[in-house]
Design goal:
The chain has about 1000 residues and is mostly beta strands.
């Protein structure tokens, strides 16, 4: 013990020295895979906690105040035995969940051995806002089989816009948590960060049946977490135990029982201009199967668990001009090994793959939205996901000092092989959008596109009397190979330019009559890029008194982004993020908990910024008179007449000096959060709660291109005409900075002095200060499963308001994290303040299960939510600049009328009900049959619309308000499983 104490002291001194020298550190939360237990007993009692199924036993002695605590405990059911100083015993059982603390108190009165089963329902030492669902609990709920669907059960969680994270095959599927954009969450598997940091709207996943539990943190999380302004989604996988267990299942969701696909034909409207929803053929036939096995290689010492998932998924889509058949048969797997080296050391190894290859065959459609095939167009393949490997080592140096170290390697593919990549995009926007030509994809991804993360972290917990110290460091490197271009290298759009209207390049139709035009656009970018993120943290969980615990922590983060040649163009060091928490066991009986939080949270610069800002990008538009016909070959290119106006150039194909595109004083995006809440334990296992949350975005990072404003300021402040023109041209090519603040720009005035720093005041650039606030009242209730029934639910009234959504722009489906069209020019921000796309004023959630008989169980899931705000976006017609009009239907001026954000009302409320029936026959132990009906009433309410109201200045869009996404169709899912 003396040796261990010396080692512990040496390590702690060394760790503090590392902190003092500003060592590289970062975010993932190793502790999220484990939990803790604490409570009260007689002073000097010996507390033993044991889980025989995984061979774990820990012993600690309660202090003079009777308090005890054990951290870094693997999830599971434990027996706690307390030996009082007089030799009497008491015992209880407790369930420990990952990322949470459980409380078990014992009487300090001498007594004989007692045993019981008590669920510790409130974590009285943590001020975090957390929802944890075990896989067993998830299986009792009719819910889609993915991480996002489970996360949406948490209070305040809403589904993001279907275009955010959208691929050529699938709608986006990421949640918005706490008013943040869907790109501002962070995702973990067994403590390893699996967020796709290209733009934050994708992540790696284990096979759904390999999940052991899922944790959703929606606020108040401690300093061990960072890189998130929304929430933390953490998955802990299944593992082996001392008993060999295995099984297999088959899950089938037939397309024959799926609710009909629907579409809206723009010419079919009611008298009041509303779109009619029409049925069409098509659907997804989804067959999956899993086989798993886990158990001891060496009892109490070495355990393994493995699961393999197979799939046969086919989706038929019938479009206006094409029919697609998508198939996916890629296997996925999880392997997990746990080694209890001895009583003080454990090692965990995890490997999993979610790599998937989807194949798409496309035919021409003889009839719009109907069955029948024309000529074969092409065969495309898309690859996503990848392999991940994680190693975690934990050592208990003393009963009071625990250290864990984790290393992980993760890969994510974004490859595509498009047979029709030589076919340009040809669209006719006159009325209903019609696609021509042979292309099967809009954008072509670099065939070598992939992402790789290497991460290391070290965490420690040290109990010193009334103080529980936690400290750690973390470092990760993220490499991206990326590149995109339009199919065929070109986008052609045919539209009508009304008399007096202005095209995207500023050309104005003064002919006195409408003319048909063709707008052509060339876009391509790419390269290999690297980002480095680092952080360290320290926190003191101080037992101030018998009933009060304070959490006093701080986190320091650093972010580094490099361009395509490895030169640093963003380097942010020493951002300080304090985290303060308070919990109060009001009456000291573990029945009433009052808690409060105040914290600051930073998010890193996404790698998308490297690609778009520091890579070589070509982007320009030309406008022509439409020649009136299309080519007769497979490309169907439009005939081009007279060129109208000048070329509009946004990217010249060159990657400039990285110092000339970023404000050297830039600060990362961050927000502050304040929470006040209460939880009350009631009789019969009920817990109710209420919480107030306030979040305020304090800084935004985005690109700005207002060269005209910069040049005017320079002219008025003593710069020569040539210098003002050079400065304006430099800013025109866009600078990454903090909107609403002064801009420091490095500019080459061609005077032989190289780059000169120029500080341009915010007033000269004409942008408002960024604003985004989230205010919510949350009411929750829960009755955990007791073998008979469970019920859980919430009501949230929320207000999400501001002039920026954050890292994405759901108004137009743009997920260019950090490089959205917001803040490019002042005109685009005029009228931007209002209720944001993720604002859902009222949300009610209710889910639970009931064991109606020995063999039968029923489950349900209900979500009722108010609709999203609506906008009318159009060509800029204000006075703040003359360039915003070039962005097309992108401003809050629409058809010549100023329409501030959210002024067009809201979409309708949505209601979705799921039900489940589960049969476990007595005649065969381990066999189960389950039927899930998702959205059983087949509600198909519109969830997003086309908010772009013009095709040219003064030319209304025929597709404005056309629905773009609906509630998912009714789906029946059948599961047969056998476990032994």
């Amino acid at each position: 013990m003396l040796r261990k104490t010396v080692v512990a002291h040496a390590l702690s001194v060394a760790f503090m020295a590392i902190i003092a020298s500003h060592a590289i550190v970062t975010v993932a939360h190793a502790q999220s895979t484990n939990g803790s237990v604490s409570g009260k007993a007689a002073a000097g009692s010996v507390v033993v906690i044991e889980n025989k199924s995984i061979g774990v036993s820990r012993t600690v002695t309660s202090g003079k105040d009777g308090m005890y605590q054990m951290s870094q405990m693997a999830p599971g059911t434990y027996t706690i035995t307390v030996k009082l100083p007089n030799g009497a015993e008491q015992s209880d059982t407790v369930v420990i969940n990952p990322g949470q603390g459980s409380t078990v108190n014992f009487s300090d009165v001498a007594s004989v051995t007692v045993s019981g089963s008590r669920a510790a329902r409130i974590d009285f030492k943590s001020p975090e806002s957390t929802t944890v669902l075990s896989k067993v609990a998830i299986d009792r709920i009719p819910v889609t089989r993915d991480v996002t669907a489970v996360a949406l059960l948490a209070p305040g969680a809403t589904r993001g816009d279907s275009r955010i994270g959208q691929t050529n095959l699938r709608a986006g599927n990421v949640p918005s948590l706490g008013g943040a954009s869907p790109a501002e969450n962070v995702y973990y598997i067994n403590g390893f960060n699996v967020t796709n940091s290209l733009n934050g709207v994708a992540f790696n996943q284990v096979p759904f049946d390999a999940i052991g539990s899922q944790e959703i943190k929606t606020g108040g999380y401690g300093p061990e977490y960072g890189r998130s302004l929304g929430g933390v989604l953490s998955v802990t996988t299944k593992r082996g135990t001392n008993e060999w267990k295995g099984g297999a299942n088959v899950i089938y969701a037939p397309d024959s029982l799926e609710g009909s696909a629907i579409y809206t034909e723009p010419t079919v409207k009611t008298a009041d201009g509303k779109y009619v929803q029409l049925k069409r053929p098509g659907g997804t036939d989804d067959l999956q199967g899993n086989v798993w096995l886990g158990g001891p290689i060496i009892k109490d010492k070495l355990f393994i668990f493995g699961l393999v998932q197979g799939a046969d998924i086919k989706r038929d889509t019938y479009g206006k001009t094409q029919q697609d058949v998508t198939t996916s048969k890629s296997p996925k797997y999880l392997l997990k090994a746990d080694w209890n080296i001895n009583d003080s050391n454990t090692l965990e190894l995890t490997a999993f793959s979610d790599k998937a290859k989807d194949k798409v065959d496309t035919w021409q459609s003889p009839n719009a939205y109907a069955e029948g095939r024309g000529d074969f167009v092409g065969h495309d393949e898309y690859t996503t996901g990848g392999e991940n490997y994680i190693a975690k080592y934990t050592t208990w140096l003393t009963d009071d000092f625990t250290v864990s170290a984790m290393y992980g390697l993760g890969r994510y593919n974004r490859k595509s092989n498009i047979a029709t990549s030589a076919c340009p995009i040809v669209q006719d926007l006159r009325g209903s959008t019609t696609n021509y030509g042979c292309r099967t994809a809009s954008t072509i991804t670099d065939p070598n596109a992939n992402d790789e993360r290497k991460a290391f972290r070290l965490d420690a917990e040290w109990t010193l009397g009334d103080h529980g110290l936690r400290f750690g460091l973390d470092s990760e490197k993220y490499k991206v190979v990326d590149g995109t271009s339009y199919s065929g290298g070109m986008l052609y759009q045919i539209s009508t330019l009304n008399a007096g209207s202005t095209a995207i390049n500023g050309y104005r139709n003064t002919s006195g009559a409408p003319i048909d035009i063709v707008t052509s656009r060339v876009f391509a970018n790419g390269g290999a890029f690297e980002t480095e993120n680092a952080a360290y943290y320290i926190e003191d969980n101080w037992q101030v008194s018998k009933n009060v615990v304070t959490s006093l922590g701080i986190r320091n983060e650093s972010f580094t982004n490099k361009n395509a040649v490895g030169a640093t163009f963003i380097e942010v060091k020493n951002t300080w993020a304090p985290r303060l928490g308070l919990t109060w066991d009001v009456r000291g009986d573990s029945q009433t908990k009052l808690f409060a939080n105040a914290g600051r949270y930073y998010i890193p610069v996404m790698s998308n910024t490297n690609v778009r800002l520091s890579g070589a990008e070509t982007d320009y538009r030309d406008v022509y008179v439409y020649g009136g016909s299309l080519g007769t070959d497979r490309f169907r290119l439009p005939a081009l007449g007279t060129k109208l106006g000048d070329r509009l150039v946004s990217g010249n194909g060159e990657a400039g000096d990285p110092r000339s595109v970023v404000d050297p004083n830039i600060k990362p995006m961050y927000q502050d959060e304040y929470i006040l809440g209460i939880q009350q334990a009631l009789a019969n296992r009920w817990v109710v709660g209420a919480k107030l949350t306030y979040r305020k975005l304090q800084s935004v990072m985005d690109d700005m291109c207002n060269g005209t404003g910069a040049a005017s300021w320079a002219t008025a402040n003593g710069y020569t005409a040539d210098q003002a023109a050079i400065l304006g041209d430099a800013i025109d090519h866009c600078f990454l900075y903090n909107p609403g603040k002064d801009l420091t720009a490095n500019v080459d005035f061609e005077d032989g002095k190289g780059l000169t720093q120029v500080r341009i005041p915010a007033s000269a650039l004409g942008f408002p200060k960024p604003e985004r606030t989230y205010k919510s009242l949350e009411l929750t209730f829960e009755r955990p499963w007791d073998g008979k029934w469970s019920l859980q639910g919430s009501y949230v009234m929320a207000f999400s308001k501001g002039n920026t959504e954050g890292y994405v722009k759901s108004d137009i489906g743009q997920d260019d994290a950090g490089i959205s069209q917001d803040w490019d020019y002042p005109g685009l921000m005029e009228g931007a303040y209002g209720y944001l796309p993720n604002d859902r004023r009222h949300t009610v959630k209710l889910f639970g299960a009931y064991q109606v008989a020995d063999e039968w169980r029923l489950g349900t899931n209900l979500v009722v939510q108010s609709g999203r705000p609506k906008n009318c976006l159009g060509y800029y017609n204000g006075n703040l600049d003359t360039v915003s009009i070039g962005y097309g239907s992108a401003s809050f001026y629409c058809n010549g009328v100023f329409n501030p954000r959210g002024s067009q009302g809201r979409l309708a409320w949505t209601t979705e009900v799921g039900v489940q029936a589960n049969y476990q026959p007595k005649w065969q132990k381990g066999l189960t049959f389950t039927i899930d009906a998702l959205n059983i009433f087949n509600e198909r309410t519109v969830t997003s619309i086309n908010e772009q109201g013009e095709t040219a200045l003064g030319t209304p869009s025929a597709t404005y308000m056309q629905p773009q996404s609906f509630q998912s169709a009714r789906k029946f899912r059948f599961t047969a499983a056998y476990e032994f």
